[in-house]
Amino acid sequence: MSFKNKTVMITGGASGMGFLSGQCFAKEGANVALVDIDEKNLASKCEEILSEGGKAIYIATDVRDYQQVVRARDRAVEEFGSIDILINSAGGNECRVLNHYEDFVDMPIDVYDWGLDVNLKGPFYFSHTVMKQMVKQKSGVIINIGSVTGEEGSSSGVAYATAKSGVMYGLTKSLAIYGSRHNVRVCCVTPGPVLTREAMAKMKTLIGRAAAPKEVVDFIMYLASDKAAFITGTNHVIDGGRLIMPRS
Ligand SMILES: NC(=O)c1ccc[n+]([C@@H]2O[C@H](COP(=O)([O-])OP(=O)(O)OC[C@H]3O[C@@H](n4cnc5c(N)ncnc54)[C@H](O)[C@@H]3O)[C@@H](O)[C@H]2O)c1
């Protein structure tokens, strides 16, 4: 799968699967535009890709701020001339990220606002903004990242579960319907536990382990490639069988 002369824009590019995607796409010849709110980490991850011989820029951006999202798109197009692939990877469970574990009814609402804004509005804003460029180009692929939590629900990370369901189904399907008129495909990759953090090893799967980040990134790359030209509007679970585990 060569991505030579393709430009890949990746949110959440300073960490985890977002950064690894950037590294892997760059190794396959792509221009990479890394986006993240964490500017310090973002700059050093971009430097890492450059030092490996890849082509990359970074654009510090808060995915919750539409004006910043528009600026990020414009900067990537200015640098590379197109955006061929968008990966909406920025996200996280609000309870873990903001360290709030109150009961649902006692949770400060700004914790849930964060969860909805980063995990749902962020991919929505980026897709809206980048789709405009893809329509102009008459081509593109958008890969959203869901979570098995969007399928299972969660009594504490309620915003995370709600947002991920929205991304996996409403957003991915709607964008695919719209995008089909413009040669733009849209898919969602929905992981179970992934070892971007050690704690994920505790989450059970049928296969008995969590995924290596590369296993998910390989799948993202397949879906973003021309080999997946007939795939759009679908949610693809990669969870080691977690969702079909017998419940006791
Ligand atoms: N790791 C897992 O087990 C797992 C499982 C299922 C789904 N996911 C999803 O996969 C995606 C990547 O997960 P990961 O573990 O690789 O991520 P990660 O936690 O390593 O990185 C997430 C990145 O998003 C960035 N971010 C947070 N808020 C932002 C904002 N407002 N604007 C811009 N960037 C922001 C963070 O700075 C961070 O660099 C996420 O959407 C996550 O929900 C992960």
Order of strands, main sheet, comes to 3-2-1-4-5-6-7
Instruction: Tell me the Rg in angstroms.
Output: 17 Å
Question: Which small-molecule ligands are present, each listed once?
Answer: nicotinamide-adenine-dinucleotide
What proportion of the residues form beta strands (DSSP E)?
A: 15-25%
- Our count of helices gives 8
H/E topology pattern: EHEHEHEHHEHHEHE
Q: Output the CATH class name.
A: Alpha Beta
Major sheet size, sense and barrel closure: 7 strands, parallel
Helical fraction? 40-55%
Question: Can you describe this structure?
Answer:
The chain is of the alpha/beta class and 248 residues long. The protein has one domain (7-239): Rossmann fold (3-Layer(aba) Sandwich). It has helices at 16-27, 39-51, 66-80, 94-98, 109-137, 149-152, 158-180, 213-224, and strands at 7-11, 31-36, 55-60, 85-88, 140-145, 184-191, 235-238. The protein has a 7-stranded parallel β-sheet with strand order 3-2-1-4-5-6-7, sandwiched between helices. The model has no long low-confidence stretch (mean pLDDT 97). The protein binds nicotinamide-adenine-dinucleotide. Nicotinamide-adenine-dinucleotide is lined by residues 11-12, 14-18, 36-38, 61-64, 89-92, 118, 145, 147, 191, 193-194, 196, 200.
